[in-house]
Each structure stands twice: as structure tokens, then as C-alpha cells.
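Researcher: Structure prediction, please.
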Amino acid sequence: MTSSKTLDPYCSVARSLGVLGDRWMFLILREAFGGATRFAEFHSALGIARDVLADRLATLVEYGVMTKEPYQEPGQRSRDAYLLTDAGRDLRVVLGSLQQWGDTYLPRPGGPTIVRRTHRGDRPVHVAFVDDRGRELDPDDVVAHRTDQYPVRDG
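Model: Predicted structure follows.
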């Protein structure tokens, strides 16, 4: 994929932040998970400047987080709807984790504005590390192992 951004070839966290590191990206995603697909819906919900919104949506499309699909209201010009791709839908867990952290460490005085529950059974859910057997792990029991070293950079 050709890109206007230079992403760190050695660190997936840095690459991810190179695309998603702006607060507006996750607020746009929050609205998309809530059903927003149209530029005007994102603009109205977020109050973001139109040029900033256009830039952020273009980046999400460029990196395959969203895709554009034309639509046309009767008597209006054709416009683009912004739809989440598989890559975008996979960010639901990241957004849920951010919300969970915020609810715990930066709680809203009136309590959470969103509570996540299962479709069936209406059981509360949370984001967690889960091993390959489906068992939830204590975060202190999870270790990140490097698979290679960063290259030495000449200064």
C-alpha cells in the first residue's frame, strides 16, 4: 500500500500510533461503532473541523480501517459513506479497552455512559488477555517477548 506517512518498520505499536495516534481517530471510530457512516453524522456528533475530519477519514481509508461506498439521496449529489472494514471492526477491542481504563482510572461522576454486555444473556463483559485455551489471564502474568532487536541506528 502506498502511503503518505512514514511508519516505523520495527515496532507495531509505533506503526499503529502512526495511523491511529490522534484522539480524533478513536472518536471517529466510536461514532462508526455507534452506526455513523456519513461525513455529516461524524461532523455533527464530534464538532470537529471539516478539514480535520476529511483528513482523518482519508487516513482511515488509506490504511484500510474504513472503506468508502458511494450513496445518493434523491435529488442530491453522490456522496461517500464510510464503512468499517475487518481491520476497523477489530479495533472495537482497543476502543473497549480504552473505555474500560478510563472508567476505572478517570471515572465520570455519574458513572459510565456505555456499558458493554453480551447480545444473548445480557451479561456484562470486559476486555482482558485470554490464552490460546480461552482462559482469562491476570495482566501481571503476561510478558511481551521481543522477537528481534531494533537495528542500531547511526547517529
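Model: The CA atoms of residues 58 and 74 lie 26 Å apart.
Researcher: Thanks, that helps.
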